[in-house]
Amino acid sequence: MDIAPIPFQSKKILFVIDSLCGGGAEAVVIRLAEVLVSQGFDVRIIIFANIIEYEIDPRVVITVFDRDQHKTKWMTYAALGKQVKKYIAEQGPFNLIIANLLFTHRVMMATKLPDVHYCIHTSYHTVHFAHLTGLKKWWKIKKFKSRFNDKNLIFVSKGAQDEVVKKIGVIPKSTRVIYNPFPIHQLKEKSLEPIDISEPYFLHVGRFQKQKRHDVLLKLFKKSNVKDKLVLIGTGIDEKKQAIEDLAHQLGIYNQLVFLGFQENPQKYMRNAIALLLSSECEGFSNVIVESLICETPVIALKCPSGPEEILSGELKQYLFEMNDHAGFAAKVYEVSQRPRKISSQIARVERFDENVVVPMYASLCK
Asked: CA–CA distance from 216 to each of 13, 220, 223, 325, 326 (Å)?
């Protein structure tokens, strides 16, 4: 792909990510890009699948290099890396390059460019290594360390950093913990929009995928003995949704479920929920916890690796439960259903996640 160079006008920032589908890491990249471009930065995004599920400020330049045109993953990494390196040479110099998500990390490592920052959005040890044993685990960790040693790493939570640096043993060139940015004022405004649900309900927001553990969510909800609705916002492959429906039938709670699919404004449902429930086996950060607290709605969560414990701190620890404490979680759901309450911004300390606090941390990485 031949791209005419653009004259250098301001500091240039390049985000590289698999796609711009409706996921948490993708939303973070878009938010960072839009705030930075509004501040006068020249912001570009490279994606490897032409999937864009968000409206994006047209000043952010998006380029697609198609990953599906290559036969094997090894050819894909090398070929895409060559394309990206050419793009950077023609369009640069860039003052900051940030790679997001595992596939993109591999592509950017293939470029062998020295100043790339690799953003870690998830609990790598829990997702990729915790279920392995023996030689296979040793070998995969060895490969992971060889890739990420001596790299500039950004982590979305201290827990994610600890998993990579302490548990896996990566020795990075540099590390920064930067929480995800949130447009707090805008989200509060959106949360005030009306909804079409009149009955009291609990809420879960997340894709239908294994990491979110909808099976655990339904069992905990059943154990709580509440009669309120459980609203599920999210999408996924049909088989995953069917498995959720089947389990709900088995547990006798199917009639309490409400499937809303993807929602452009989940905040209005957060504002009106009794509480947000989180049953994930791991989270890098958990955007939905912060969004719910911005909407002044409590979050009852299992203490999965990284993320929740850093957000639900202080007075909010009462809503956080060890992964095996299903009885405590269910009891809290019942207690909250009987005495609903709102969470003030002061208690939630959400200001630390405001985009006006977070984005300058990224801007400061510009060379």
From this structure: 41, 6, 10, 12, 9
40 C-beta neighbours (distance < 10 Å), count: 10
For residues 291-301, b (16+ Cβ closer than 10 Å) or e, as one string? bbbbbbbbbbb
Look-up: residue for tokens 């998993």? Answer: 163
* Model pLDDT for residues 114-131, shown as the tens digit of each residue: 999 999 998 888 877 877
pTM over cut 0.90: no
Question: Do residues 48 and 99 make contact, with C-beta atoms less than 8 angstroms apart?
Answer: no
238-251 and 214-224 helices cross at what angle (nearest 10)? 20
Show the CA angle centred on residue 297, arms to residues 291 and 300, nearest 5°.
Answer: 90
Rounded Cα–Cα distance for residues 284 and 253 (Å): 30
Alpha carbon of residue 122 to chain centroid? 7
Read off the pLDDT of residues 68-124 as tens digits, 9 standing for 90 and up. 776 666 678 999 999 999 999 999 899 999 999 999 999 999 999 999 999 999 888
255, with CB counted inside 10 A (0-12, 13-18, 19+), is exposed
Q: What is the 3-state secondary structure (H, E, C) of the chain?
A: CCCCCCCCCCCEEEEEECCECCCHHHHHHHHHHHHHHHCCCEEEEEECCCCECCCCCCCCEEEECCHHHCCCHHHHHHHHHHHHHHHHHHHCCCCEEEEECHHHHHHHHHHCCCCEEEEECCCHHHHHHCCCCHHHHHHHHHHHHHHHCCCEEEECCHHHHHHHHHHHCCCCCEEEECCCCECHHHHHHHHCCCCCCCCCEEEEECCCCHHHCHHHHHHHHHHHCCCCEEEEECCCCHHHHHHHHHHHHHHCCHHHEEEEECCCCCHHHHHHCCCEEECCCCCCCCHHHHHHHHCCCCEEEECCCCCHHHHCCHHHHHHEECCCCHHHHHHHHHHHHHCCCCCCHHHHCHHHHEHHHHHHHHHCCCC
Query: Tokens for 113?
Result: 């460019």
